[in-house]
């Protein structure tokens, strides 16, 4: 998890960090879920596609401003690497968190 998060003039929030996974399950898919908590507001957003090839990779998650409710200042961010178990019709059957990191961050406004 990065020690900083960013908020754009329109209120859009960007969170980022790194992850590492060896191999995705053949029974499902992998995803990153990032949650920022600030002043009682909880905002969970997904990051881009996860690649499990044994290397450390960067993830970035964006939330549009009209959803965010986040402001410059201190916040807590949790990044979760999740495995989605799919049923036969490609619908999610269950989601397991396989790795998690929580960190206090400073949310910076764009200048």
Give a verbal description of the structure.
- This protein has 111 residues and is mainly beta.
- Helix content is 4%, strand content 60%.
- The chain contains 1 helix and 7 strands, in the order E-E-E-E-E-H-E-E.
- Strands 4-3-6-7-1-2-5 form a 7-stranded mixed beta sheet.
- It is elongated and about 40 Å long.
- The mean pLDDT is 85.
Question: Key terms for this structure?
Answer:
111 residues, 7-stranded mixed beta sheet, mainly beta
Distance between the termini: 23 Å
The overall pLDDT, averaged over residues, is 85
Say how many strands there are: 7
Number of helices: 1
| Largest sheet geometry | 7 strands, mixed
Helix content: under 10%
Q: Which structural class matches the secondary elements? A: mainly beta
Secondary-structure element sequence?
EEEEEHEE
Shape: elongated
Strand content: over 45%
Query: What strand line-up does the widest sheet have?
Result: 4-3-6-7-1-2-5
- Radius of gyration, in angstroms, nearest whole number: 15 Å
Low-confidence stretches: none
